[in-house]
Write a structure and sequence with these properties.
The complex is a heterodimer of chains A (473) and B (462).
Chain A (H helix, E strand, L loop, with lengths): L2 E12 L24 H4 L10 H13 L3 E2 L2 E2 L1 E5 L9 E5 L5 E10 L3 E14 L3 E3 L8 E3 L6 E7 L6 H17 L12 E11 L9 E6 L2 H20 L7 E6 L4 E4 L12 E2 L6 E2 L2 H9 L5 H12 L3 H7 L3 H12 L4 H19 L6 H12 L5 H13 L5 H7 L8 H14 L1 H8 L5 H12 L6 H12 L1
Parallel strand pairs in A: 12-13
Antiparallel strand pairs in A: 1-10, 1-11, 2-6, 3-16, 4-5, 4-15, 6-7, 7-10, 8-9, 11-12, 13-14
Helix pairs in contact in A: 3-4, 6-7, 8-9, 8-10, 10-11, 13-15, 13-16, 15-16
Chain B lengths: L2 H17 L5 E3 L2 H13 L10 E5 L26 H8 L3 E6 L33 H8 L5 E6 L5 H7 L2 E4 L19 E6 L2 H11 L28 E5 L9 H16 L3 E5 L7 H16 L19 H12 L2 H13 L6 H23 L4 E5 L15 H5 L6 H6 L3 E9 L2 E8 L5 H14 L8
Parallel strand pairs in B: 2-3, 2-4, 7-8, 7-9
Antiparallel strand pairs in B: 1-3, 4-6, 5-6, 5-10, 9-11, 10-11
Helix pairs in contact in B: 1-2, 8-10, 8-11
The chains are: A alpha+beta (473), B alpha/beta (462).
Chain lengths: 473, 462
């Protein structure tokens, strides 16, 4: 009998604020240890937290982008535990009254087509600091720059059915959050972190099996690998008659293995209770409506709009909406008068390459439009167009036509000039001329190529063939 | 008198109080007093509290002195920042005179739980000054300073004010910023004021009150104005809650309250019996809510970043926590951390913490109902007895907790209340408590001032 995999994800994203969740310290990544700290985020006696309105706004925005209901009243709560990276001995989070609940994220599953994943809740919390083990031999250092950085924790329903689906969901989730401009979602900088819960059950069994939680996942690819490894471990366990214990596991990316946390996990009792330092967070419905109205177009609706309005294939639409900036650029190129399919090919080709390398668009949409116009009108060949594009990337500010001129890439269709190159080619290849005349018609391609070569690409190939045909008759 | 002269005179009084063994101060120095005087003399304007020396309970942080909270665990700690109330006092011209002794982390009703020794009652060295703000109360009662700040979580200013025969005013929760007050029970904590007179306390409360952007629980209201002087109490209705006048009330306390009731009638007010039916639940409710919050608030004292640091056997992080906290906290603080941890634990939360939140709401509702019947203020005894003897209750925590039986409920309800001396019984002060509706401090203080003029504070009541 087969096993069904059940996965739910807890994703922490750093809200992209200038200052921390409950104090005015900067959130800059990579500053020297313990430089972005103050009495509040150090948990000094007598200091008090004051909520950062911008973090609340971004949290609400994230929730709305994920289709959640943002609650008129939510409550900050203290999550109590001792750890050296936690200066107050409790983390300010939200517990039984989170900011938002009941959202939905749709993604394309390889196995099941379009799948909607329920978002159980999104709540606000502050980050803890960071322990540094490799700086002082035999000692552990604490860096509290990260302590108090605002996070949104996004908890999914156990709606995912494979490690690959978990990865696909994460990709879409990140895309939505980046579109909504709430987080940079960089796993390298720790602004997106994933904990995965996985359990197995017999196909058709309605009850959930015992879950394991996998931590220390530093890329989406590793989320998939870790879940594959844990799935295999659980299947082996169950098939040999054993049972899965509720456990927290760490993934080792080097070995591809999951291992139970070193210390025997005690059942944590966080003793949550409402934080008396912070009044309930009350958000008016008009404020929530404003945040909803301020949301940009999100990936899914943008995809269907690009398909509908521009007749793009689902594939092209998906690639172009991969990032909002790419889709914006594409739409600007179309606005510059380029046929959508041709614009899509350019943007998904050379433009995407440049974007991936430089993170920007050095050639303005208007200029790319002009260049594509030159190709369409036969002023430059497609190949020459690509060379002009490469030159435009380097020399900002020049017009495509001028670049084509300067590089000598403007096509020649004047019959006299073409006849000159044709005569030279025919004179240089008497053998081929003879074979052609004896009926070897496919040599026409060879002659066109030679003329292009001799003209250094300037000859208009459409004009070359009639001249060749005439001279070879 | 110039600020410099005031600083010198204050230093002399502090020194003689220390020499007399009052043990009410934890830190003060002539150098800091002189610096305060120099700052005041250099200021462009003389504030309403110009050159008034003020003592601060040692759970209010200043960057010039250590802050100990009466505990070993803060050994060597000086705050890098200063409490909002201290900034405001200085802006009004006051000079910080001393940091005052207190029950460790404000947990206690006698100031016997200080890691730095007990504070003596200024009138009888064998007795306690009350607590937890006993150092501040004793300094005012002994005439060392005219005013002092304490903090209340469940009566820790009114109760020692009553024991020491001075005025103690607890404002409404949210009236005064807690920024810079080391937290005990955050939903209850109120920085509160001691004064020799109602007017002195009123002036200080006016200076420190008002919204603070650094404390999200302050209310967005302007500072409290000093209320107009009342000649009488005509038109006011004063309620006497029957639950606060039990049959076994100390006869001296009962006599002091009777004298006060008569004075109130003479001043033209109407007196009415009222009922606050959930009064009996106040102490048990308080001893769930306050320890729960305290257990979380005191988690930060872990030896990792500041204060005492002890590493126990094993040398790992757990050993650091256990040794630091085991050695750093006194018995009463450890007891409350254990209680607080217990009542928040899985499986006990509903039975204790959640239920206590419900009774807390019922207690607040009692007061709302009483005031809704047309009563303007309530009059009660502040404490069931005058100051007790040192050591009398230290072995019996519940007996100690019951010293706060008349002051806990108002803290749970967040209401303003004050204690006023209304006479002495066998030489020991008796206090009357006046309780007002939320944010009605002006009415409370103006009525108290009228009563103060009518009732001799130091006369024997029987």
């Amino acid at each position: 009998m087969s096993w069904e995999t059940v996965i739910g994800l807890e994703v922490h994203v750093q809200l992209d604020t200038r200052t921390k969740m409950f104090c005015g310290c900067r959130t800059t990544f990579g500053d020297p240890p313990n430089t972005n700290v103050c009495p509040v985020c150090l948990g000094l006696p007598g200091a008090l937290p004051v909520p950062n309105g911008e973090a609340v706004r971004l949290g609400a925005r994230a929730a709305l982008a994920l289709g959640c209901r943002v609650h008129p009243t939510s409550v900050f709560a203290r999550k109590n535990y001792f750890y050296p990276d936690l200066p107050k001995g409790y983390q300010i989070s939200q517990f039984d009254q989170p900011l938002a609940t009941a959202g939905r994220v749709a993604f394309e599953s390889g196995e099941r087509g379009r799948v909607e994943v329920g978002i159980t809740r999104l709540h606000l919390e502050e980050d803890a600091g960071k322990l540094i083990h490799d700086r002082f031999p035999g000692k552990t250092a604490v860096d509290l720059n990260r302590a108090g950085i605002p996070l949104a924790e996004i908890v999914s329903e156990p709606d995912l059915r494979s490690p690959a689906e978990a990865r696909a969901y994460l990709t879409v989730l990140r895309q939505i959050l980046v579109y909504a401009q709430v987080s940079e979602c960089s796993m390298e900088q720790g602004s997106l972190r994933v904990d995965a819960n996985i359990s197995l059950r017999r196909a058709g069994e309605p009850r959930l099996g015992t879950k394991a939680e996998v931590k220390n996942l530093n890329s989406f690819a590793n989320v998939e690998r870790a879940l594959e490894a844990e799935r295999a471990r659980q299947i082996a366990l169950l098939e040999s008659g054993g049972h899965v214990e509720q456990v927290t596991l760490l993934f080792n990316a080097a070995t591809g293995q999951v291992k139970p946390l070193r210390s025997k996990e005690e059942s944590h009792d966080y003793r949550y209770f409402p934080d008396p330092d912070l009044p309930p967070l009350v958000l008016s419905s008009s404020w929530v409506d404003e945040q909803r109205a301020a949301l940009p177009e999100l990936p899914e609706s943008r995809r269907s709009r690009l398909e509908g309005a521009f007749g793009l294939s689902p594939y092209d639409a998906r690639v172009l909406t991969g990032e909002a900036a790419l889709a914006d650029y594409f739409e600007s190129v179309v606005s510059a008068g380029v046929e959508p399919k041709i614009a899509a090919n350019w943007v998904m080709g050379d433009v995407m390459t440049t974007y991936n390398e430089s993170g920007g668009f050095p050639v303005s949409a208007a200029r790319l439009g002009a260049l594509i116009g030159l190709v369409r009108d036969g002023v430059v060949s497609h190949q020459a167009g690509k060379r002009v594009y490469a030159e435009l990337v380097r020399s900002d500010g020049e017009e495509p036509g001028a670049v084509a001129e300067r590089l000598g890439l403007v096509q020649v269709s004047d019959e006299g000039a073409l006849a000159g190159w044709v005569d030279e080619v025919l004179a240089a290849h008497p053998g081929e001329v003879a074979r052609f005349r004896e009926g070897e018609a496919k040599l026409m391609t060879f002659f066109v190529g030679q003329v292009m070569k001799r003209s250094r690409g300037k000859a208009d190939p459409k004009g070359v063939q009639p001249v060749l045909a005439e001279k070879l008759r | 008198m110039s600020a410099a002269a005031a600083a010198r005179a204050t230093g002399e009084r502090l020194a003689s109080a220390d020499a007399a063994g009052l043990n009410a101060t934890l830190h003060w120095s002539q150098r800091l007093l002189d610096a305060e005087a120099a700052r005041i003399e250099a200021a462009a304007t003389r504030g309403p509290l110009a050159a008034v020396p003020i003592a601060l309970k040692d759970n209010i942080v200043t960057s010039e002195q250590p802050t100990t909270c009466g505990s070993r665990i803060l050994d060597g700690y000086t705050s890098p920042f200063t409490a909002t109330v201290v900034d405001r006092l200085r802006a009004a011209g006051a000079m910080v005179a001393a940091k005052a002794n207190m029950d460790e982390f404000a947990m206690g009703s006698s100031t016997e739980h200080s890691a730095f020794g007990r504070v003596r009652h200024p009138l009888d060295a064998d007795r306690v000054p009350g607590g937890s703000s006993g150092g501040s109360a004793a300094l005012v009662a002994a005439g060392v300073v005219p005013v002092a700040l304490g903090s209340e979580t469940g009566g820790s200013v009114r109760q020692p004010a009553s024991f020491c025969g001075v005025v103690g005013v607890k404002p409404s929760y949210g009236r005064v910023s807690r920024y810079g007050l080391v937290a005990f029970g955050s939903s209850l904590d109120c920085i509160s004021v001691f004064g020799r007179t109602v007017d002195d306390a009123t002036a200080v409360l006016g200076a420190i009150s008002g919204a603070d952007p650094l404390d999200a629980t302050t209310l967005d209201r302007p500072p409290m104005p000093v209320p107009p002087v009342r000649r009488d109490l005509r038109g006011l209705r004063i309620g006497l809650p029957k639950e606060y006048f039990p049959a076994d009330l100390h006869p001296g306390v009962a006599a002091g309250l009777e004298r006060t009731r008569e004075a109130i009638l003479d001043l033209g007010a109407e007196v009415r019996d009222v009922s606050l039916p959930h009064t009996a639940f106040a102490v048990p409710t308080y001893y769930i809510v306050a320890p729960a919050e305290a257990a979380a608030n005191l988690a930060r004292f872990d030896g990792v970043r500041y204060g005492l640091r002890r590493v126990g056997p094993g040398g790992d992080i757990r050993a650091l926590y256990q040794a630091t906290r085991g050695e750093g906290f006194g018995a009463e603080v450890r007891r409350r951390i254990l209680v607080g941890t217990y009542v928040l634990s899985a499986g006990y939360y509903d039975a204790y913490y959640r239920k206590a939140q419900r009774t807390r709401a019922l207690i607040a509702e009692d007061f709302r109902r009483a005031f809704a019947t047309g009563v303007d203020l309530l009059l009660t005894p502040t404490t069931p007895t005058p100051a007790f003897r040192a050591g009398e209750k230290t072995e019996d925590p519940v007996a100690m907790y019951l010293a706060d039986i008349f002051v806990c409920a108002t803290s749970l309800a967040g209401l303003p209340a004050l204690s006023l001396p209304v006479g002495r019984s066998e030489g020991l002060p008796i206090g009357a408590q006046i309780i007002a509706p939320f944010f009605e401090e002006e009415l409370m203080l103006s009525a108290a001032s009228a009563i103060e003029r009518a009732v001799p504070a130091t006369a024997e009541v029987r």
